[in-house]
Amino acid sequence: MLASYLTMAAILFCIGLYGAFVKRNAVVVLLSIELMLNSVNLNLVAFSKYGAVPSLTGQVFALFTIAVAAAEAAVGVAVLIALFRARGTVKADEFDELRR
Amino acid sequence: MNGFTFNFDGGYAAFFVFAVLIIAGSVLMISTSKVVHMVMSMAAVFLGVGGMYILLDAEFLAFVQVLIYAGAISILMIFGIMMTNHRDAAAEAVKPLKETLAAVGALALFGLLFYAIRDADFTGMDGGRMVPEEDNTAAIGVLLFHNQVLPFEIVSVLLTVAFIGAVVLAKKEAE
After folding, report:
1. pLDDT > 70: percent of chain B
2. What distance in Å separates residue A17's CA from the closest CA in chain B?
3. Element spanning A50, H or E
């Protein structure tokens, strides 16, 4: 059963990776990053039940990841709102000052 | 002995249902054109992951997942979409080369991961050895406030700093 969960998490991670590469709307890029973080959490919890040393520590680690992901999402959306106010767009490929 | 052992029972059926929910939601998230629909399908993905946590005997984490992800983060993203422009989302200029490269990269990564998972030796790791606690929440609380006090406090400081920073960033500039 462990391998099924790991494969599930791998599928989720790769879909999130594809979304983060392809999507132009920066809010959707943030969502894709959340998808990848979720797949990591799924791995942690799966190993906390089926791993070589099963214990609750994996779940606690996943809790910390969720807290950090929440902070990341809040700051990300705030940055996007500030960027939108300054530039009038949230297209990720139009923020290219550093490239010029 | 790779870990793909399927004895068909209720847990496996539930896993299958949640897996279909997660994959359908995430593929819909990639393929739909309206941003609000993307957030809605993401909420389905988050609920599916929460269901998987229940299957893995992590009830407290499932509850947190539904509260934080399906509740708070989805709403936060919807607010983010509403406060930025969401009307021209349909007019996505396609960049075939970039999309192909991204698809190839993601598929290659998945192939690598799948190969590694298939090849790994999971014998003797088929669960059941962790006796699920009577009260998952109480056990996590004890662990959190005994062994992990320092990380817990650091995370609380981090959250405070991040949210104050978010308020300052999103606040309108005073003229």
Report:
1. 82
2. 6
3. helix A26-50
- Please report, for the domain that includes residue B26, its CATH number: 1.20.120.1200
The answer on pLDDT for B3 being more than 60 is no
pLDDT at B44 over 50: yes
Residues of A with CB below 8 A from B2's CB?
3
Which of B33, B125, B161 is best to mutate for the A interface (most A CBs within 10 A)?
B125
pLDDT digits (tens, 9 = 90+) for A73-82: 999 999 888 8
Contact A59 B61 (CB under 8 A): yes
The enclosing domain of A39 has a CATH number of 1.10.287.3510
Burial class (CB in 10 A: 0-12, 13-18, 19+), B105: middle
**How many independent structural domains does chain A possess?**
1
pLDDT band at B94 (very low <50, low <70, confident <90, very high): low
CA distance A41 to B158: 19
Q: Shortest CB distance from A75 goes to which of B35, B77, B166?
A: B166
pLDDT at residue A90 in the model: 78
Print the domain residue range for A79. 2-91
Tokens read off for B40:
């809605």
Chain A stretch 57-76, residues whose beta carbon is closer than 8 A to a beta carbon of chain B: 57, 59-60, 62-64, 66-75
